[in-house]
Amino acid sequence: MDKKTLILNSAVTLFAQRGYHQTTIQDIADEAGIAKGGIYFYFKSKEELLLSVVSEYYDRLFNQTVDTANRYLHAPKEGLVQQVMNHFQDAGSHSNMIALFTRGQIDVNAEVRSVLLDMRGKFLVWFRDQVIAVYGPRIEPYAFDLAALLTSLVREYMSFILVNGAALPVRGLGEAIVARVDDAARGVIRSQEPPMLTTAFMKTVLPTLDIREGADASRQLSRAIDALVARIGAEVDADEDATTARQAADVMKEEAAKPKPRRVVLEGMLTLLERMGGDATAGKELEEARRLVATFES
């Protein structure tokens, strides 16, 4: 473990046990087994150290969530279950970090509050896109409402586990939460009542985040194409073929990102990739790319 990580872990442990204000830089140095000056090499103050603790935790959790989704491109609903499970598994491994907030061990200053609000918005937009991936384009008007439902359920169950000591199965939690989102998705499609959290409204609430209507199919296709090209690159012998595959993938990504992608272009480039890859494309990567291309209008 590098020294910076050691300092961060020691700070989290003491902040959770004693409280932020009751913990000194010297305490953290003693816990880490280093000189006090070693902490100031990385962090100018205790406030900067706390900000780094919060930022690095949520950045890592978000990246884990994205990695989990990418492993389940061929099965987006199971991918959503796995992403929810990842939140609970991570909380179990980093209970001291969660305790900082659930047990009131710190007073959140303006900088930390800004990081928390930014990350909350980032996760909300991410799960909005995941909802669209699972339920299709017709759910898009309600996707923020459903993402808010999902993230709220995760937070409440997390509180039961960490604050009340409830023992709940992680797999069961993931399936139950996604099942409740299933119920809500069927309900809003059936009722056609107007959504509360419209895309236009959320753009005003989260102006710094990338919220695009119909954007998820493009992002999903981009990830699927990357996976397909990686497989082709690992199988073909000629560097020239691998370069051509990457160029075809770039054409597909650029086309998919347009306001009105031309499906004939996407299909043509995908056929080229299939021919180039041969047996290397006979797998779930190609099937997922085909499925996503088919969601674009002809």
From TrEMBL:
Alphabetically ordered keywords of this record: DNA-binding
InterPro entries per the UniProt record, alphabetical: DNA-bd_HTH_TetR-type_CS, Homeodomain-like_sf, HTH-type_Tx_Regulator, HTH_TetR
GO MF terms, alphabetically ordered: DNA binding
Keyword Transcription regulation included in the entry's annotation: no
Domain HTH tetR-type: 1-61
Keyword DNA-binding: yes
Organism: Paenibacillus antri
SUPFAM superfamilies in the cross-refs: Homeodomain-like
DNA-binding region as annotated in the record: 24-43
Protein name (database record): TetR/AcrR family transcriptional regulator
Pfam families referenced in this protein's UniProt entry, alphabetically: TetR_N
